[in-house]
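Help needed: design a sequence for this.
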């Protein structure tokens, strides 16, 4: 099989986002737009991946995986120029080149696979992934001749008359025969109005020389939504969120109300766990089996929760580990905590993890019982099976010994140990 390499175009500023952050670093479901596309390139088994960077290149480059090659586009002269910047890496390469735009996070791996399959099967010089949309504004239109063969792509700004109504548009994803791509790229001239070199002009050039150009259409009309504005970002977010939730439900997680549940793409949740409404689960959160989460819970980055844990309403958990069968049922905050098994976190418990300068750790060992409305000022440790009385403030650097009872403000250990 012919070798395949990928070029991801990510140099643009994204002016329409009106943002200091480069467009491709905006996130949906906790993942950057660029990362969605990198993940696709990886998942289809692409060989080398080249990512063209320009605007705030340093900031973007920091987020790239080590095995991707960053290529600098010095001046943002359009998508054809962006591809041209990768040329030196393709000398002598005889395979196919997949080109993807970094601003189309809804693209599916299966669609990109079909694009490549069609390209290989038809032995075309170029295969374009197209999409039929209700409103083609902003997209390049697919121009076909009387026999239905694609002859050109007309950019939105240049489309006139009936062309403006063409509902079939360019998604910005293509597969090229490498040699044809780079030789015809040279023939693209500057678009006078926009002062850019359009990659899409290559289609007409290929047709002039009677080279074969194929197209394949996406299954749904949203799949290649290009993110150009904040509004697009929100639309894509809504679609991706439902995809994340569906995948979790398919794996045996109950999502009571998908309309009010926000789970980032990287979350891992075990079977028979129930996520109740108005719950937000952020990046890199792991939840075990048979847990009950929410309503109104917020689990923040780096949180790991064991099996059969209950996290109830108005709770926030950040960078915290929680062991099996622990209960935290009502309005509480745990930050930077290591919580054991079968612990009871009473209503209103707060870990004071931030001292104004550093974040400090709270340890609560197995079977401990934290009474309602307690404040644990980190760093602090509550021993195995210890009890903290309701309304206590356990001060910094205290270690409540195993099995003891502590109470008061500041909490003092009571002689005689645990009465429970
Ligand atoms: C592009 C296509 C259009 C297609 C649409 C799909 C061209 C000329 N037009 O338009 O046919 O319907 O995508 O979403 O290709 N980029 C660079 N360097 C540049 C300019 C852009 O790397 O100099 C990158 C951007 O970061 C972006 C991608 O190329 O990821 C597409 O650029 P963008 O300006 O968003 O193109 P569109 O106008 O959306
Ligand atoms: Ca775009």
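Sure. Designed sequence:
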């Amino acid at each position: 099989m012919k070798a395949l390499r990928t070029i991801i175009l990510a140099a643009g500023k994204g002016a329409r986002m009106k943002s200091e952050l480069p467009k491709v670093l905006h996130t949906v479901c906790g993942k950057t737009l660029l990362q969605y596309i990198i993940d696709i390139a990886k998942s289809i088994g692409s060989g080398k991946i080249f990512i063209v960077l320009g605007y705030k290149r340093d900031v973007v480059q920091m987020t790239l995986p080590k095995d991707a090659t960053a290529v600098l586009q010095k001046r943002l002269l359009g998508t054809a120029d962006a591809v041209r910047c990768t040329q030196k890496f393709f000398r002598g390469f005889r395979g196919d080149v997949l080109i993807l735009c970094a601003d189309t996070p809804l693209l599916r791996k299966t669609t990109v696979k079909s694009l490549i399959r069609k390209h290989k099967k038809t032995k075309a010089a170029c295969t374009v992934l197209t999409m039929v949309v209700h409103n083609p504004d902003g997209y390049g239109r697919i121009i076909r001749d009387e026999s239905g063969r694609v002859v050109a792509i007309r950019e939105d700004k240049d489309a006139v008359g009936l062309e403006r109504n063409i509902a079939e548009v360019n998604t910005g994803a293509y597969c090229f025969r490498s040699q044809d791509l780079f030789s015809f790229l040279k023939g693209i001239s500057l678009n006078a109005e926009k002062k850019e070199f359009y990659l899409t002009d290559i289609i007409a050039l290929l047709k002039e020389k009677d080279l074969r150009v194929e197209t394949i259409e996406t299954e749904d009309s949203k799949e290649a939504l290009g993110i150009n504005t904040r509004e697009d970002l929100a639309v894509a977010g809504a679609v991706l969120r439902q995809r994340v939730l569906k995948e979790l439900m398919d794996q045996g997680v109950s999502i009571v109300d998908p309309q009010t549940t926000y789970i980032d793409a990287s979350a891992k949740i075990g079977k028979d766990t129930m996520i109740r409404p108005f719950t937000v689960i952020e990046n890199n959160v792991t939840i075990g089996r048979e847990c009950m989460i929410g309503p109104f819970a917020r689990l923040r980055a780096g949180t790991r929760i064991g099996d059969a844990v209950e996290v109830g309403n108005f709770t926030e958990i950040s960078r915290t580990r929680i062991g099996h069968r622990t209960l935290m049922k009502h309005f509480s905050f745990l930050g930077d905590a290591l919580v054991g098994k079968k612990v009871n976190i009473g209503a209103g418990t707060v870990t004071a993890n931030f001292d104004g300068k550093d974040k400090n750790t709270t340890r609560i060992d197995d079977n401990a019982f934290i009474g309602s409305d307690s404040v644990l000022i980190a760093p602090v440790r509550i021993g195995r099976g210890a009890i903290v009385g309701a309304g206590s403030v356990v001060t910094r650097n205290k270690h409540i010994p195993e099995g003891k009872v502590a109470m008061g403000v500041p909490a003092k250990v009571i002689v005689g140990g645990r009465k429970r």
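The longest helix spans residues 230-250.
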